[in-house]
Specification:
Blueprint (H helix, E strand, L loop, with lengths): L1 E5 L7 H14 L5 E7 L1 H12 L7 E5 L2 E2 L4 E8 L9 E6 L17 E8 H11 L3 H16 L7 H18 L2
Parallel strand pairs: 1-2, 2-7
Antiparallel strand pairs: 3-5, 3-7, 4-5, 5-6
Helix pairs in contact: 1-4, 3-4, 4-5
């Protein structure tokens, strides 16, 4: 199941996007809930600065489901699409039960929640223009990339990048993106 929050005024075909994400989840053999948020460049820059300590906008952020720590704190491993290999993993810590800025955090007892993907629509528009393809295609690529991160794929090491790229290209071929 896909939960979508469009926090921009961009006219995004939410049903088409939801159907696409559901297809990717089926290919990845995942029956978990994913939250997808579309935000402004300023908002993703704020998230990047807060959680990555990078004062720049990015195209997509993926927040895998959290783990409950002793003492009622939540730990969320944060991943991004374009990350220098020398960057150390960053962790987000919040009080259990606290609301998130993008959407409500799901209860730690909900093993059905895979994570959240946050996409900057303006960054996606810029990339679509640069690549000379429609915005919808770029958004699908970013969703696919984010879902692969939520499923544990990474690109910090070259060997991991090769595996992730291979999986991404395979799904792009299957779904004819």
């Amino acid at each position: 199941m896909i939960e979508i929050n469009n926090l921009t005024n961009a006219g995004i075909a939410l049903k088409k996007i939801s159907n696409f994400a559901e297809k990717v989840l089926r290919i990845l053999k995942t029956k978990k809930i994913v939250s997808l948020a579309f935000v402004s460049s300023g908002e993703i820059k704020r998230l990047s600065r807060t959680y990555l300590k990078k004062n720049r906008a990015t195209d997509v952020l993926s927040f895998p489901n959290f783990i409950q720590e002793p003492g009622g704190r939540l730990m969320i491993k944060l991943r991004t699409r374009r990350t220098p290999s020398r960057r150390r993993k960053t962790y987000l810590r919040r009080q259990a039960g606290g609301p998130g800025k993008i959407s409500e955090w799901h209860s730690s007892s909900t093993n059905n929640f895979l994570g959240e993907i946050v996409i900057s629509v303006s960054q996606a528009k810029n990339q679509a223009k640069k690549e000379k393809h429609p915005l919808e295609k770029e958004i699908k690529i970013l969703i696919l990339h984010g879902l692969l991160h939520l499923r544990g794929f990474d690109h910090e090491k070259l060997s991991d990048k090769i595996k992730m790229d291979k999986q991404q290209e395979k799904i792009i071929r299957i779904l004819k993106i």
